Amino acid sequence: EATFVGAFIAYLLGLVIAVLRMSRSKIVRVSVYWNAEFIRRTPLLVQLYFLFYVLPDLGIFLSPFAAGVFGLGIHFSTYTSEVFRAGIDNVPKGQWEAAKSLNYNRYQTWRNVILPQAIPPMVPPLANYLITMFKETPLLAAITVVELFRAADQYSNSHYKYLEPMTLVGAFFLLVSIPSAIAAMKLEKTFKLRQL
After folding, report:
1. Alpha helices for the chain (secondary structure H)
2. What pLDDT, in 10s, does the model give residues 15-25?
3. Per the count of CB atoms within 10 A, which of 74, 110, 132, 195 is most buried?
4. Total domain count for the chain?
5. Which residues cross the membrane (predicted)?
6. Contact between 20 and 30 (Cβ < 8 Å)
7. Which domain holds residue 86?
8. What is the pLDDT of residues 120-145, one digit of tens each?
């Protein structure tokens, strides 16, 4: 659940960051760029600690789950924004001019011309980031989110058995990650074939 909610935030915020990075205003472009770089260059664990343990000192209280999904979403939005930006940059300049000649406003241009062409090639890398987010969810245990790893850890501590629970967690991550990675590779091949 944390993975999918975090991915939704990452994709939505990533698209916003990508669009702002293409702004006509240099101040907006530069400030968004440096904020994204700061988030990308700091460890996710530090960001999770900040959201869960530091924000309450400022009067902002988040549940462990909310802090976890916001942390995942904000952190990975800086990566997905690059995917969105590359996809948008990949749309030929002539498409923008064609939309202008059809008297499309900015919203119509994005909705009817740019995004339908930009999104398909973005799907495989976005799927890869979803898999990466899934593999990062054990970090949420550091802020007391009871996800799979935390549940196994609690069981291990109370029963003094570590091999079985941790092996099961590892096996579960493999069972989800490997088929997901194969599906992402197939998607990538499909989109490459369509472009030929």
Report:
1. 2-21, 26-41, 44-49, 64-89, 93-101, 106-108, 115-136, 148-159, 163-195
2. 999 989 988 89
3. 74
4. 1
5. 6-23, 44-74, 166-185
6. no
7. 2-195
8. 888 888 988 988 888 888 888 888 77
Q: Shortest CA distance to 129 belongs to which of 70, 75, 175, 87?
A: 75
Cβ atoms of 68 and 143 closer than 8 Å: yes
Give me 14's structure tokens: 């990533």
CB atoms closer than 10 angstroms to residue 161 = 11
Residue 71 structure tokens: 């942390």
Q: Residue 183 has which token pair? A: 């599906």
The answer to whether 118 and 88 have CB atoms below 8 angstroms apart is yes
CATH number for the domain that contains residue 114: 1.10.3720.10
**Whether the model pTM is above 0.85:** no
